[in-house]
Amino acid sequence: MADLAGRTALVSGAGRGIGAAIARALDAAGARVALVARTESQLRAIAGGLRHDPLVVPADLGTSDGPQQAAETVLGAFGGRLDVLVNNAATLLRKDSHTVTVEELDLLWQVNVRSALLLTAAVLPAMAARRAGSIVSISSISGLRGAPRRSIYAATKAALDGMTRAIAMEYGPQGIRANSVAPGVVATAMWRENLAKPGVEGAVLDLIPTRRISTEEEVADVVVFLASDAARAITGEVISADGGMHSTINLWPKV
């Protein structure tokens, strides 16, 4: 396992799902983790299982000032040092594209993109001052491949990948790396509900070379690797954690 002993990390959307798994994995690797999300009770439940003095920061990252306030709270508690930022906070919308409302579009932009841009901007000076830092944004296979009823969600995830490449180029000379992790189908509560519908799991598995659904912990392991010195030569990348789903096509005949 990667060694993050003595380092600090901020994980947005840390109250459940992939974000909670990332917080646990970073803690297991030795980092002190700040957990940021709207629901304090969820954050405290996750923090209760962590070992390295976790910090709970309730915040609504969808607001214009929420990301900056959260970053200031975390940097204040960590003595101005932040080694790892994980932009994970997101909301999903599955809907026919021609029915999407302005309010829905604004919500996804604010939570999925603006919060990551503002959090990143808020911590970059502290990372640059130490000439070190790793920023990992959780994007999606939807930002890499077309998927029906996900056009707005896909657009927000593609935006994160664009941010990743720009930050990598702009701040690489100051010792800061930026990468994205793009999960495919992951065994979250949301996906388990969908997979339980007749015929869905088989159809999904046919699209995945490994013929298995990824776990939240497997996505978290990729994040820990990117946060560590083992990935010191990796920046500006979008790394898929999807069992090969986005890179392949199933042309095998049905038997």
Describe this structure in words.
The chain has a single domain, classed as Rossmann fold, CATH 3.40.50. Strand 1, helix 1 and strand 2 form a beta-alpha-beta unit. The chain has a seven-stranded parallel beta sheet with strand order 3-2-1-4-5-6-7, with helices on both faces. The protein is built from eight helices and seven strands. With 255 residues, it is of the alpha/beta class. The longest helix is centred in the middle third of the chain and has 29 residues.
What's the gist of this structure?
The protein is α/β, with parallel strands linked by helices.
CATH fold-level label: Rossmann fold
State the helicity in percent bands.
40-55%
State the separation between the terminal residues, measured CA to CA.
41 Å
What's the number of helices? 8
Task: Return the CATH architecture.
Answer: 3-Layer(aba) Sandwich
> How many runs of DSSP E, i.e. beta strands?
7
Q: Please compute the radius of gyration using only Cα atoms.
A: 18 Å
CATH class: Alpha Beta
What class do helices, strands and sheet pairing give? alpha/beta
CATH superfamily: NAD(P)-binding Rossmann-like Domain
Order of helices and strands: EHEHEHEHEHEHHHE
Contiguous uncertain segments of 5+ residues: none
Strand order of the largest sheet: 3-2-1-4-5-6-7
Assembly type of the chains comes to: single chain
Main sheet makeup: 7 strands, parallel
- Share of β-strand residues: 5-15%
Provide key terms for this protein.
255 residues, seven-stranded parallel beta sheet, 42% helix, globular
